[in-house]
Task: inverse folding
């Protein structure tokens, strides 16, 4: 193949055939009979602006591989590298062989039995990049429009517009070969507003698409402006217990932070709130369904297969509040006597993680209390718009959380931004204290979810 | 034209000089004010022990370049894994193109070549070889998880993790910067999950150093396990903290995360550029209680945030940020100096070649004061003692938060029952004047900081401090 820069990469991306050929010959020369590989290659460009001027323009070409090697004793070793030269590949393979001496005999990953199964079709149009100067013009225009929305919006300190072209490959020595190309674009705008004698307030919005031309720029500007302006009129909230309405983004953040509930790896490691016998247990109110569905058309940039080559699929996690399935890799699936679910990473110890959640009312259940409207509630309602600092405030293995949030207190139908507050609770109690849902489910970068009402959560404020 | 091929030795040293000079001259001849090339090689080892088994060994190695071009106050940055002449040339041309420049368009270089290499790595060549080999590293980790088993009660899961990060960097810029360094960071973490009926407590500690190949050999697994097990035993049956406004005493070491989040980030010139710090125009003014003197430096031997030179080739220094409550200066990098006028402080840092350097903290701490820790606690009638802190963050309006891993109530000047689930929130401008007492027991603790230029090794630190009033989130 022409235009080859180093082993397995071409001017346009990765060459699966070249990678396979190189690895097979290096493996054979080093006495390695069983191996697999995950490779990724991407080209990114991004821009940031500051009050009409370009702030930083970035470009990146990245390539990386992770190889796993099974030694004569059947143990697995792994090595990763960004050096895709012939020498780099050889060092990676021999490094993985060396590491395999320390492989865990009690938990040996194998090739996924589904690594050659058919993949579900994904409608992912490939867009040619617009180029950095067009991105810059678009972002400058977006910033200008956002600044013009309100006198108090003086800056948009966090902003960015990016395009990415990427490619993933999975290969193994049994002949599996997966390859996926993707183009994506993202826009984020976080405005900062300040009125005389008042504290600064900030809020923003994000949009994803398969190409920069498809981004909903106007929607992003509108959402960032509306949210920022809505926080200008703020007041402290009194500490106490409130009924809370989580935005789709906030509820999905919370579910994601506690996804260890559904994670077979965490269960086997003893750090999940679930255990091997939890399938069939009631974890939530009887009208809550949660599915993991990386294949949903709203999941921009969905992966067609996981790190082990297993096809992505839609999987029921909770149905009617009852735990139906765990997320699995090949190894955890084998331990549970089920099929892998397409949620694996790649490694000597394979990680497991969710793709994209669908939160919905259980069909036929009525969906809890009907007609919920936060603006017509008879009691004060805390509307939680976004959660912060999940990395610090979530104790995933304990179930507890205490998180700062942005949101509003709604009294008599009137929302007023909350100055500074935290929401605290236990995920197990939250799932059983859901009152119902409000509005249509919304597509977000992390999943599909309506607004979710939860009663009796602890709010700490400064009033 | 860039004709000079990079060396094939695999080492980043003065052999790269001709190739780098070609790149820098090309960039300058295109009209760039300044061109900077950052080259990097890395070698990482991660090991995980669970219970009494090694469950993961993850070696990784890599290389790459980051090329940054300045024109006026604007800059373009491109990173690549391709260190071939064509790959570097392509990256440079892309960076130039972002600024509307093209090679040769200016017709003159103005670049007079690189000086001799400032080689901070000369005495560090054998560091990687002197680190423990895999067999020794795994044995030490298993010693740690064994100690957890011996010293802990009700432990449902025990984990030990080890990370060794070796990095060789070469920085060249058209202003004559030409430096090389080798960095070595090692850290060991111990984590447990204790469970007894409905009671659960997850506790972890991480210990880290820089530039000490023998660090893992010297690690006291017994003492570390004792610290983790003692905390887990206490927190397993702790009640949730009652929310409210109250005074708090924060312990030394990792308690310093309060200054890091509440104030340190707001003293980085990246925040001045964005207009997101309330302190931008306040140099020379009182922004904290007179009890507070705060420092950011890169010099303490073995500390996680120490470095011989920053990622822009400037030697580290000691920077007094706040002296007796008065703001002295900001943490600045090359772009920060250009855009805000605050002089560079050797604080241009980045996670890897894929990030442009930015002004970032190194070893950042509140200096020791005159009191004993007991005096601070005795001064509180009813409040919270934060013995161990978790992570935190600061937002674009200066609001900060951080989690308390291990807390105790203070009642009538005495520590009483343990409490969990606390989150401290506040605003930098308001909390800094409320740090009213500093004890005499300054200690540092290793940590990681994620921000605009990626995740970097830092140290936080402080003596015991008293905050007169802070919002404690809980139940």
Result:
């Amino acid at each position: 193949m022409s235009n080859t820069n180093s082993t397995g990469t071409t001017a346009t991306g990765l060459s699966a055939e070249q990678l396979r050929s190189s690895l097979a010959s290096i493996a054979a020369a080093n006495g390695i009979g069983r191996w697999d590989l995950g490779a990724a290659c991407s080209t990114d460009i991004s821009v940031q602006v500051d009050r009409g001027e370009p702030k930083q323009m970035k470009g990146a070409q990245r390539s990386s591989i992770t190889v796993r090697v099974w030694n004569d004793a059947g143990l697995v070793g792994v090595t990763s590298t960004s050096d895709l030269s012939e020498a780099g590949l050889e060092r990676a393979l021999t490094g993985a062989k060396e590491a395999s001496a320390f492989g865990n005999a009690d938990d040996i990953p194998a090739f996924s039995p589904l690594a050659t199964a058919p993949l579900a079709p994904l409608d992912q149009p490939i867009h040619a990049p617009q180029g950095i100067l067009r991105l810059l013009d678009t972002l400058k225009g977006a910033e200008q429009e956002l600044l013009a929305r309100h006198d108090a919006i003086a800056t948009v300190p966090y902003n960015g517009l990016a395009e990415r072209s990427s490619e993933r490959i999975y290969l193994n020595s049994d002949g599996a070969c997966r390859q996926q190309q993707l183009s994506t674009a993202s826009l984020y705008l976080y405005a900062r507003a300040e009125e005389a004698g008042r504290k600064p307030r900030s809020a923003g919005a994000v949009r994803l698409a398969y190409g920069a031309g498809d981004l909903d720029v106007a929607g992003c500007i509108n959402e960032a402006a509306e949210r920022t302006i809505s926080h200008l009129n703020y007041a402290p909230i009194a500490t106490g217990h409130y009924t809370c309405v989580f935005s789709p983004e906030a509820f999905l953040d919370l579910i994601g932070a506690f996804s260890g509930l559904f994670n077979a790896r965490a269960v086997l490691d003893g750090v999940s709130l679930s255990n091997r016998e939890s399938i069939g247990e009631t974890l939530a109110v009887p009208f809550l369904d949660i599915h993991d569905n990386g294949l949903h058309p709203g999941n921009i940039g969905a992966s067609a297969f996981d790190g082990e080559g297993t096809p992505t699929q839609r999987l029921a996690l909770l149905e009617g509040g009852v735990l139906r399935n765990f997320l699995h890799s090949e190894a955890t699936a084998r331990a549970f006597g089920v099929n892998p679910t397409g949620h694996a990473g790649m490694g000597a110890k394979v990680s497991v993680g969710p793709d994209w959640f669908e939160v919905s009312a259980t069909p036929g259940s009525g969906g809890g209390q009907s007609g919920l409207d936060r603006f017509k509630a008879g009691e004060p309602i805390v509307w939680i718009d976004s959660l912060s600092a999940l990395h610090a405030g979530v104790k995933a293995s304990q179930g507890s959380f205490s998180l700062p949030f942005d949101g509003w207190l709604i009294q008599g139908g009137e929302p007023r931004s909350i100055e500074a507050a935290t929401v605290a609770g236990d995920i197990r109690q939250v799932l059983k204290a859901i009152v119902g849902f409000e509005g249509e489910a919304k597509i977000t970068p992390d999943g599909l979810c309506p607004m979710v009402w939860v009663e009796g959560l602890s709010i700490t404020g400064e009033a | 034209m860039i004709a000079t091929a990079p060396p094939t030795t695999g080492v980043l040293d003065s052999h790269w000089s001709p190739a780098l000079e070609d790149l820098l001259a090309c960039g300058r001849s295109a009209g760039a004010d300044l061109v900077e090339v950052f080259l990097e090689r890395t070698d990482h080892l991660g090991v995980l022990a669970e219970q009494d088994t090694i469950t993961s060994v993850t070696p990784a190695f890599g290389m790459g370049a980051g090329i940054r071009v300045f024109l006026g106050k604007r800059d373009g940055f491109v990173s690549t894994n391709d260190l071939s002449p064509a790959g570097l040339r392509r990256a440079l041309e892309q960076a130039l193109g972002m600024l509307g420049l093209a090679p040769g368009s200016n017709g003159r270089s103005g670049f007079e070549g690189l000086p001799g290499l400032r080689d901070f790595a000369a005495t560090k060549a054998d560091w990687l070889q002197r680190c423990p080999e895999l067999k020794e590293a795994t044995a030490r980790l298993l010693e740690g998880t064994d100690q957890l088993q011996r010293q802990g009660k009700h432990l449902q899961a025990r984990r030990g993790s080890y990370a060794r990060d070796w990095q060789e960097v070469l920085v060249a810029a058209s202003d004559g910067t030409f430096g090389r360094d080798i960095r070595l960071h090692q850290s060991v973490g111990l984590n447990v999950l204790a469970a007894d009926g409905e009671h659960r407590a997850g506790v972890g500690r991480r210990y880290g150093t820089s530039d000490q190949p023998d660090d893992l050999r010297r690690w006291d697994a017994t003492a570390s396990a004792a610290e983790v097990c003692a905390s887990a035993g206490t927190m397993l049956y702790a009640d949730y903290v009652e929310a409210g406004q109250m005074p708090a005493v924060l312990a030394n070491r990792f308690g310093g995360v309060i200054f890091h989040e509440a104030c340190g980030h707001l003293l980085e010139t990246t925040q001045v550029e964005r207009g997101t710090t309330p302190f931008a125009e306040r140099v020379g003014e009182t922004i904290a209680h007179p009890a507070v003197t705060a420092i950011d430096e890169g010099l303490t031997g073995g500390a996680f945030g120490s470095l011989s030179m920053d990622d822009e080739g400037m030697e580290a220094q000691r920077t007094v940020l706040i002296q007796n409550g008065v703001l002295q200066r900001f943490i600045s990098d090359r772009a920060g100096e250009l855009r805000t006028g605050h002089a560079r402080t050797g604080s241009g840092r980045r996670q890897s070649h894929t990030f442009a350097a930015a002004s970032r903290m190194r070893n950042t701490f509140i200096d020791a004061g005159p009191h004993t820790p007991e005096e601070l606690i005795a001064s509180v009638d009813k409040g919270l003692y934060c013995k161990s802190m978790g992570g935190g963050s600061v937002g674009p309006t200066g609001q900060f938060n951080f989690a308390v891993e291990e807390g105790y109530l203070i009642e009538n000047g005495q520590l009483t029952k343990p409490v969990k689930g606390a989150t401290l929130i506040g605003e930098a401008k308001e909390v800094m004047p409320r740090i009213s007492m500093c004890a005499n027991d300054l200690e540092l603790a290793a940590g990681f900081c994620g921000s605009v230029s990626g995740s970097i090794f830092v140290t936080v630190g402080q003596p015991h401090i008293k905050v007169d009033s802070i919002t404690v989130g809980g139940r």
Remarks:
- Chain A touches chain B through 77 residues (CB under 8 Å).
- The CA atoms of residues 250 and 386 of chain A lie 5 Å apart.
- Confidence is low (pLDDT under 50) at residues 1-6 of chain A.
